Amino acid sequence: MTDVHSKATRSYNMSRIRSRDTTPEKLVRSLVHKMGMRFRLFRPDLPGKPDLYLPRHQTVILIHGCFWHCHGCKVGGKAQPKSNTSYWSQKLHRNKERDRENIKALKRLGLRVVIVWECWTRNPVTLENKLHRLLGVILRKAPLAETGPGPK
Predict the structure, then answer these.
(1) d(Cα 94, Cα 2) in Å, to the nearest integer?
(2) Is 149 helix (H, G, I), strand (E, B) or coil?
(3) CATH code for the structural domain at 14-134
(4) DSSP category for residue 142
(5) Angle CA 84–88–94, to nearest 5
(6) Is residue 48 within 8 Å of 61, Cβ to Cβ?
(7) Interaxial angle between packed helices 124-140 and 23-34, expressed in degrees from 0 to 180 and rounded to the nearest 10
(8) Which letter, b or e, does each residue of 76-114 get, where b requires 16 or more Cβ atoms within 10 Å of its Cβ?
(9) For residues 73 and 99, what is the distance between their CA atoms, to the nearest angstrom?
(10) Domain spans of the chain?
């Protein structure tokens, strides 16, 4: 099946997709801040440049887009591009591999990893409850160590 948009239109649409400061990221940041947690953004010295790094709690929060990280939900995880399927299949498979590698590397550094999916952000109240549940466990635990990747 051919694309319903011209090559120029498709190129423009794809160029508008941001990898930073997305709406789901802004919502999660707001809720985490509201919970009283302080964080750093996109630490380049950590594997995968996590979206949020909570130094006091030695925790990273990864905010995954359902399509790009193959969640499999209704929001975008089940939709597969109908053109250039070989390219997209390889690209999305590599994204999943990279996620696994980055999570393993983060855990080897002694960091806790929390993943927030884009579809969770559709309902801010539900997301807030999930964040309280996920991060509440971390708040009750003592920090892993005073030393870590270091302040930035």
Answers:
(1) 24
(2) coil
(3) 3.40.960.10
(4) P
(5) 150
(6) no
(7) 50
(8) bbeeeeeeeeeeeeeebeebeeebeebbeebeeeebbeb
(9) 18
(10) 14-134
Between the alpha carbon of residue 22 and those of residues 16, 27, 63, the distances in Å are 11, 9, 10
Token representation of residue 46: 């950590």
Q: What is the pLDDT along the chain (152 residues), one digit of tens a residue?
A: 466 777 787 667 666 666 667 889 999 999 999 988 899 998 999 999 999 999 999 999 999 988 888 888 876 656 777 778 898 889 999 999 999 999 999 999 999 999 999 999 999 999 999 999 988 877 676 444 444 555 44
Q: Which two tokens stand for residue 104?
A: 């393993």
Q: Tokens 């929390």 correspond to what residue? A: 114
Sign of CA dihedral 117, 51, 97, 93: positive
